[in-house]
Amino acid sequence: MELSIFKSTGEDTGRKISLSDAIFDIEPNDHAIYLDVKQKLANARQGTHKSKERAEIAGSTRKIKKQKGTGTARAGSIKSPVFKGGGRVFGPRPRDYSFKLNKKVKRLARMSALTYKAKDQMIGILESFSFNEPKTKSYVELLNNLSVNSVKTLIVLPENDKNMFLASRNIQNSRVITVDMLNTYDVLHADKLFFVEGSVEKVENLFKEKI
């Protein structure tokens, strides 16, 4: 697959770049994508939820009424879950939601996500560029030049660029990452995926080493 390379001003450079079919044109595996996205979202959960059960709330342990003769159900404690202010039955407890996922499954999921974006023509290639200053105004201008200011975007850099990260962090629905941060969730979440020219080779090398 060949894609045109554009400048940060939105102009076509007249050059093209080939994307590896072994990465951007595979048979997608939806279940692998599901598992990878599920793991990322699960790992992001704090798991600090907690409610008090009947043994943990403050209250008298006195038997509140006699066992028989009331015409109603037996009741032994005001802390019973059936009463207002009583403990919760089987409430949430702190837990770890993370789970293990094999590296090969994660790799397959990411290549599947990239394949879907390539087939939907949602991938763009940008000529290498950088910001002299970390200004949000410069990043907004970049999005306007690329006509993607109204959609969710993901820009993949070949290496860390502090000015780019700082300039983009206040922009809603736009994210800047490096190749080593590439993940299935971010790829699928973006409406438009941009690779800065130098990052394409790094992505292909990253996956080819493990194929």
Automatic annotation (TrEMBL):
GO cellular component terms attached to this protein's record: ribonucleoprotein complex; ribosome
Pfam families, alphabetized: Ribosomal_L4
Keyword Ribosomal protein applies: yes
Keywords, comma-separated and alphabetical: Ribonucleoprotein, Ribosomal protein, RNA-binding, rRNA-binding
MF (Gene Ontology): rRNA binding; structural constituent of ribosome
Transmembrane segments: none
GO term, biological process aspect, one: translation
Self-association and partners: Part of the 50S ribosomal subunit.
Functional note: Forms part of the polypeptide exit tunnel. One of the primary rRNA binding proteins, this protein initially binds near the 5'-end of the 23S rRNA. It is important during the early stages of 50S assembly. It makes multiple contacts with different domains of the 23S rRNA in the assembled 50S subunit and ribosome.
Protein name: Large ribosomal subunit protein uL4
Organism annotation: Marivirga aurantiaca
Lineage start: Bacteria, Pseudomonadati, Bacteroidota, Cytophagia, Cytophagales
Gene giving rise to this polypeptide: rplD
